[in-house]
Here is the input.
Amino acid sequence: MLGVVIGVAAIVALTSIVDGASQGINKSLATLGTNQLNITAMAPDALTEQDAEALAKLDGVSVMFVQAQNEGTIATEDKRVNARLVGVSSQYFAAVKPEIALGAYLSDSKFAASAKDVVFGADAANDLGLTSDMLGQTVKLNGQDFRLVGVLDDQAGFGTGGRVYVTLDAARKLFSQYPYVSSIVVQAETPEAVDALQVASDRLLRDRYGLGAETEARYTITNQASLIAAVSSITDTLGLLLTGIAGISLIVGGIGIMNIMLVSVRERTREIGVRRAIGAKQSNILTQFLIEAIVLSLAGGVVGLILGQIAAFFLAIIGDWVFSIQLETVLLALGFSLVVGVVFGVWPARTAAKLEPIDALRFE
Amino acid sequence: MANPVVELENVRREYLVGDQVTVALDGVDLVIEHGEFVAIVGPSGSGKSTMMNLIGCLDRPSSGVVKIASDPTSELNDNQLTSLRSKAIGFVFQQFQLLPNTTAIENVMAPLLYQGISSKQAKQSATEMLTRLGLGERLNFDRNRLSGGQQQRVAIARALVTSPDIVLADEPTGALDSKTGAQVIDLLKELNQEGRTIILITHDLDIAASAPRRVFLRDGRIERDERGSK
Here is the structure.
């Protein structure tokens, strides 16, 4: 019965982990949008701002922005840490819309005037010990003065935490790698147009660099849909592993129940004999013991369900996703324990039913 | 006039113990009429338990014919045998054999429920039967709260509730003190006077003496078949 408890608890907890984790991942990815293509440089001089401008002119492109990034230092008067400095073009904040905790984005309309403004990711702000009263104050990036205008929320999305955002113009001055950029993001007008845009972007870049169709490019083009697919294949594998553990526990639990039932049939042999003598058919005895096995297994299932939900509750706190009791999880847990009860209860129940009444009555 | 409820014709029952054949009943003929009160008497090993099992449809003969209420049992499958047993026979056991974790009324209801009778009707019949046997106040007592005599009366109620042709009582006084035992025998006599067939299996000659007909068994054969009170 302990096996059934563990097995069902594992099923309940794993459903919740898989649900919660994919919820979290999908939420982070959704902030980027499914109609985006990320073109990432595989070498520092692989992509340029001119490439980006050419890409923006392709048919079906609604938004384009670039990021240029490099390691750098960030400092206040009394603290200095390393961070990833990211220069973004004007449409970045409008397109990505990361959640902001304090202050404001680098303004889109007055982007040129924002050249000395900086927005911190949540982790970078933490590392430097920034507080809300420091909004508008000066921080130093690679030794140059910038004005802190905003801090992103720690839920702002995948990879934003440790970054520090400035305008592309500012980035040029901070780490002088003009005209090279680290990544270009182009957004198709509709999610359906993403694949065609991916082909068109690749062809355009190959033309610009004189690469044949078979030559390996120094950039990669990924779309969000394939990223989501990759991530869900990871959660699927995790789910499969936990399903295996749950399955083994349920089999062990089932064997335990079978054992309990066989002992019970033996201990109650005389009772079976009396029941047969007063008119119980084999089928009555079979049903009686099968129901007992199911009740036993369901009891284990209910305990497992409760323990599993408690585990899921704490996992949700740790993993920072929303805890909820799903009807499907409850039905799944009870369904599995029912099946275990039936499968492992049949043999003992048959043994009981097949006892000869006289042998059963005479049994000491 | 003759209305036999039990007929044994040249009944033989052998058991295989290891590789040795033991003959428990060795060609027995016996007819019990409706409304009789018969004691089957013998020491242990005489074959009386085997005879009880055959009459009670718990077992089938190796050869010969056993007819219960004119039905031959040897041709019946397990389900048919169970159904004949349920309809024709009420068992009273030496150790009462009340079902564990059940109340008096649940014990008496069980045979009716196995016959497929609705629980409401079974409850009513069981209540009437227990009340008749003086246990109307103890319907919901479980067996730990009933004395030996009370437990045996519950067992008798359970045997009677289906209105069987035969009440088969196997050493019904064996686990009772002599006073309570006498009350149980009186109850069986009373039931017999109401027209029920009573078959009493015992090794105790004093108990057997209370029956108007006594069949003595020895070594698998009928030694004597006496009628009339001593």
